Amino acid sequence: VMAARFLLRRAVPALRHARCYADAPAAQMSFTFASPTQVFFKEASVKQIDVPTLTGAFGILPAHVPTLQVLRPGIVTVFGDDGSSTKYFVSSGSVTVNADSSVQLLAEEAVPLDSLDLATAKANLEKAQSELVGVSDEAARAEVLISVEANEAIVKALE
Amino acid sequence: MFARTGAALFLPQCGQVRNMATLKDITIRLKSIKNIQKITKSMKMVAAAKYSRAERSLKPARVYGTGAMALYEKAEIKAPEDKNKHLIIGVSSDRGLCGAIHSSVAKAMKNEIAKLLGAGKEVMIVNVGDKLRGLLYRTHGQHILINCKEVGRKPPTFTDASIIATELLDSGYEFDQGSILFNRFRSVISYKTDEKPLFSLDTVANSENMGIYDDIDADVLRNYQEFALVNIIYFGMKESTTSEQSARMTAMDSASKNASEMIDKLTLTFNRTRQAVITKELIEIISGAAALE
């Protein structure tokens, strides 16, 4: 049974509507979401999590294929068991989905979305873009590019 | 009676000059110990404040750290036995007066190094904290890869951990496996020197259980590993500061208590000496007056 479920997981891409786990026992997801200074969820049971990764955004449900991913600046949406959803903005980090359906989402910096201000984000984005034109040093250029990407993501998230 | 007291007093007569000087000596000693007690009491209060702040920030850091190590535990990644290059990261701080914090980490590091060298492996160490450098550079100076200073003045941040990790990765030492030694905080009065494993990129990539993890390419794994390294260093530093502040609090507390004890004893000696001096002067006066009659 385990082998069959394994093959089924590998064959089906990680899209919400393409799944059909009605017959498989719904494993409980143990979700831990933390930044170095704050814990948002600790071994909580949630329905689904949408994460932005370097290879694209995908959603994680209980019994997801085990995987390791690196986060990019973007929104993490957590859908609780009661249907409510909360959004957080993460700067970077990693997400681990283990075989026992436990998910560790470790973000370098994470804030709830409503604590971000659109006007400040737009101003920062313009400043970063103007800096990008002037900078020449390799390392400084990388830093400015990161700043541009992060601010773009914040602006897109808030709009 | 006077003759007898005269005889009895004869012995301390030679020490009489000493007694007079001793009164001033005792006063000086008493004043200096009182000052020391004030200092150790204030150091204890400062350490208590820093400890409560460190303990509060340790709670989320612990969740974060255990989350970072979850992969290695769940996938049961074990380093192969035949690998040669080892790395030991020792986490401590720059400042003393905290009991056995630095020496316990240094002792554990020395034991590890001896064990690894005995098995014929190559080992390099990273010292986070100047005290470790002081304890290790004489005997194991040739194994030191990186020294970190200015640790312990301010609470450690994720940025500090990432600076250390960057230096380590830039140093060019391709370690196959390693461990991080730090003092894990157990309670206000106790800590324990603990060790957590570090794995290299190759070990993780070739581990048998990694096959179940879907869709991982080398780039993603490298980023993931680097991030995990920073997380583990951050976790070690947070635990270490909390243990250090609680140990300093305990040490300064016992120092203050010892100082109080010494003050009590010295005060008694002072009073006894003062009374002896007064008695002696009275006897001199009386025997002088008796001689005049």
Automatic annotation (TrEMBL), chain A:
SUPFAM superfamilies (alphabetical): Epsilon subunit of F1F0-ATP synthase C-terminal domain (SSF46604), Epsilon subunit of F1F0-ATP synthase N-terminal domain (SSF51344)
InterPro entries: ATP_F1_dsu/esu_C_sf, ATP_synth_F1_dsu/esu, ATP_synth_F1_dsu/esu_N, ATPD_C_metazoa, ATPsynth_dsu/esu_N
Signal peptide: none
Domain ATP synthase F1 complex delta/epsilon subunit N-terminal: start-end pairs: 29-110
Localization per record: Mitochondrion inner membrane
Sorted UniProt keywords: Acetylation, ATP synthesis, CF(1), Coiled coil, Hydrogen ion transport, Ion transport, Membrane, Mitochondrion, Mitochondrion inner membrane, Transit peptide, Transport
GO cellular component: mitochondrial inner membrane; proton-transporting ATP synthase complex
Predominant location: mitochondrion
Every F1F0-ATP synthase delta subunit C-terminal domain range: 116-157
Pfam families hit by this protein: ATP-synt_DE_N, ATPD_C_metazoa
GO molecular function list: proton-transporting ATP synthase activity, rotational mechanism
Family affiliation: Belongs to the ATPase epsilon chain family.
HAMAP family assigned: ATP_synth_epsil_bac
Assembly information from the UniProt record: Component of the ATP synthase complex composed at least of ATP5F1A/subunit alpha, ATP5F1B/subunit beta, ATP5MC1/subunit c (homooctomer), MT-ATP6/subunit a, MT-ATP8/subunit 8, ATP5ME/subunit e, ATP5MF/subunit f, ATP5MG/subunit g, ATP5MK/subunit k, ATP5MJ/subunit j, ATP5F1C/subunit gamma, ATP5F1D/subunit delta, ATP5F1E/subunit epsilon, ATP5PF/subunit F6, ATP5PB/subunit b, ATP5PD/subunit d, ATP5PO/subunit OSCP.
Protein name: ATP synthase F(1) complex subunit delta, mitochondrial
UniProtKB/TrEMBL annotation, chain B:
Organism superkingdom: Eukaryota
CDD domains: F1-ATPase_gamma
Keyword hit for Mitochondrion: yes
UniProt GO MF annotations: proton-transporting ATP synthase activity, rotational mechanism
The entry's keywords: Acetylation, ATP synthesis, CF(1), Hydrogen ion transport, Ion transport, Membrane, Mitochondrion, Mitochondrion inner membrane, Phosphoprotein, Transport
One GO term describing the cellular component: proton-transporting ATP synthase complex
Record localization: Mitochondrion inner membrane
Topology with respect to the bilayer: Peripheral membrane protein
Signal sequence residues: none
Presence of keyword Amino-acid biosynthesis: no
Residue spans crossing the bilayer: none
PROSITE patterns: ATPASE_GAMMA
Its job: Subunit gamma, of the mitochondrial membrane ATP synthase complex (F(1)F(0) ATP synthase or Complex V) that produces ATP from ADP in the presence of a proton gradient across the membrane which is generated by electron transport complexes of the respiratory chain. ATP synthase complex consist of a soluble F(1) head domain - the catalytic core - and a membrane F(1) domain - the membrane proton channel. These two domains are linked by a central stalk rotating inside the F(1) region and a stationary peripheral stalk.
Family according to the record: Belongs to the ATPase gamma chain family.
Subunit structure: Component of the ATP synthase complex composed at least of ATP5F1A/subunit alpha, ATP5F1B/subunit beta, ATP5MC1/subunit c (homooctomer), MT-ATP6/subunit a, MT-ATP8/subunit 8, ATP5ME/subunit e, ATP5MF/subunit f, ATP5MG/subunit g, ATP5MK/subunit k, ATP5MJ/subunit j, ATP5F1C/subunit gamma, ATP5F1D/subunit delta, ATP5F1E/subunit epsilon, ATP5PF/subunit F6, ATP5PB/subunit b, ATP5PD/subunit d, ATP5PO/subunit OSCP.
Stated name of the protein: ATP synthase subunit gamma
Taxonomic lineage from the root: Eukaryota, Metazoa, Chordata, Craniata, Vertebrata
Gene that produces this protein: atp5f1c
